[in-house]
């Protein structure tokens, strides 16, 4: 027996599938790019950055962690030919209602994530660039998207 949410998803999928026009789409990203962004449900990288299905590989995880995404990024660069990586963090953590100090303390203690978005963006870009399997021709940059305005700002060139 389906839950109401599952029924909603199945109805939406049936509508999507009835107009689906991407049969035969190849796996390598057409724009040869990878986005690493947060799993926060307020973020919509496709709409915010203007790409279409098949143009970029998108890796989403808690905090837009370059450390967590490294394996997938390496596969996408080595196997699928991606040439550019954008690590995109955002303002206002989605753990709304949880005191910010508690989130920061827990993230730092459990995951080693810095309190500052800019600092952690810089650290994670450097982590990717210094990875022993990193291809020197791959460009990686760091960004922060403002959750309230949608504006994207480059932090690491």
From TrEMBL:
* Co-factor binding comment: Binds 1 zinc ion per subunit.
For this UniProt record, the keywords arranged alphabetically read as follows: Lyase, Metal-binding, Zinc
Q: What is its EC number?
A: 4.2.1.1
Q: Coiled-coil region(s) at which residues?
A: none
Pfam families assigned: Pro_CA
The answer, when asked if Cytoplasm is one of the entry's keywords, is: no
Does this entry carry the keyword Chaperone?
no
> What are this entry's molecular-function GO terms?
carbonate dehydratase activity; zinc ion binding
What reaction does this enzyme carry out catalytically? hydrogencarbonate + H(+) = CO2 + H2O
Which prosthetic group or cofactor does it need? Answer: Zn(2+)
User: Which SUPFAM superfamilies does this entry report, sorted A to Z?
Assistant: beta-carbonic anhydrase, cab (SSF53056)
Binding annotation for Zn(2+): 38, 40, 90, 93
Q: What does this protein do?
A: Reversible hydration of carbon dioxide.
The family note in this entry says:
Belongs to the beta-class carbonic anhydrase family.
Name of protein: Carbonic anhydrase
Q: Which organism is it from?
A: Hypocrea atroviridis (strain ATCC 20476 / IMI 206040) (Trichoderma atroviride)
